Structures are given as C-alpha cells and as structure tokens.
Amino acid sequence: MATLKEVFKRNFLSVARAQGVTSGTALSKLAAEHKKQIEKTYCNSMLKENDEPINLSLDKLEAISAALKVPAYDMLNPSFNYGAKSQTKFDLAVLAESLKLVRHIAESEGIENFDFESSLASYIYFAKQNDVPEAERYAEVARITREFMK
After folding, report:
1. Any idea where the domains of the chain sit in the sequence?
2. CATH of the domain spanning 4-75
3. CA 61 to CA 22: how far, in whole Å?
4. Are 61 and 88 a contacting pair, CB within 8 Å?
5. If we measure between CA atoms, which residue out of 82, 87, 84, 31 comes closest to residue 59?
6. How far, in Å, CA of 143 to CA of 132, rounded?
7. Contact of 43 with 28, CB cutoff 8 Å
8. CA-CA distances (angstroms) from residue 21 to 1, 67, 99?
9. Residue 78 and residue 27 in contact, taking contact as beta carbons nearer than 8 Å
10. pLDDT digits (tens, 9 = 90+) for 37-71
C-alpha cells in the first residue's frame, strides 16, 4: 500500500505533466499567484520523478493544490485521475475543523511531520463522522501525538 506521500507525489507528477508545469520556478510562480509560497528548490525536487517523496506539510499541500487548481483532498486520493470528474466526497466543514485542530496540536507540540498531520486529521475526521465518544477521541489523539513526539 502506498503512503500518502507516495500517493501525493504520483498525483502531483500526473497533474504537473498534464498542465505543462516542468520547472520549480513555474510552480513557485503559480503558487504566488494564489498568495501561497513554495520554495523553488522544493518544487524542483518534487518534479524529479525518481526522487523519494519529500516532506510535505499541510501548508505545502495547500500551496501546490492552489497552484495546480486541484483540490487538496484529490491530490491525496489514491484513485484520483486528473481530468476525470472528482468522485471524492467529504464533509468540508468537518474536514476544515479537523485540519484546524491538527494544525493547532502540531504547532503547540512542535511537530512538523506530514505523516503526523495526515494520521491525526484522518482519525479526527473519522471520529467526528462516526460519533466516537469524546473521551475515546481524546485518548486516541493523545496516543497519536505521543507516537510522533518520540
């Protein structure tokens, strides 16, 4: 099973090729048009097909998604097919609330790790959608946070 980073990298390369984005400078400029920032060196490494997927934060995901005009949740969808109508359906209000909570926890604990953010965001989203009791939610959030603080 592919990791979220691998899924993102595959989807990113597919979209970038389809849109003719071949340089880090071009991607960085596209992001700047949407008032987002991505370093050119980061963009260049993302465009190298054989490179290992690199660190990805929610801010970078948002910037790249805005630059390529593709929803962030589609960029993380393993079955995403650029050009086909998006089939991913999320409760965006719950997703946004989950992401805000994850960012707050990551900042307050000093954790800069995309795997942490994606694991915690997906758990919180799932828990809210499935009415997991609050005490159980807090315990699992604490467990996931401790796991990434090591």
Report:
1. 4-75, 92-149
2. 1.10.260
3. 18
4. no
5. 31
6. 15
7. yes
8. 28, 10, 28
9. no
10. 888 888 888 888 877 666 778 888 888 888 898 88
